[in-house]
Structure formats: C-alpha cells, structure tokens
Amino acid sequence: MWENIEEVWILEVAGLCAICGRPAKLYTCQLCGKSVCNQCMDLKKGICIRCASGRAVHPLRDSEEAGILR
Predict the structure, then answer these.
(1) pTM score, two decimals?
(2) Alpha-carbon distance 54 to 45, whole Å?
C-alpha cells in the first residue's frame, strides 16, 4: 500500500483521478493534495503533472474567484 520512491513516501488509494477523471489506483500530490492516477503523477518528484508544470490550482484564490469566499 505504501511505496518509497527515492525518499518520497506515497499512499495509494483507489478512486477517480482529479485531473483526468479515470478510475485508477491514486497517489496524493505532495504540493496540492489532489488524488491523481499514475499517468497524471510525477512519481519521482511526488507531485502531480499540474504542479510539475506550474499549472497547479490554488484552492483559496480559485474559491475567491468563484465567489465562494468574500
């Protein structure tokens, strides 16, 4: 259930990927906390492809823009 990939510990769970939406074994991004599949995860870095490319979603800013927080 736990994997150690170059000193990054990753917990695996099953569900839908937060990026592509496919059902799969999921990993948790160490930066944004999203649960993503192995195709949407940079396993060596322990982060999702959005965080790796600098396109991570900022939860507070996005909720403010959506009008959820005022």
Answers:
(1) 0.61
(2) 13
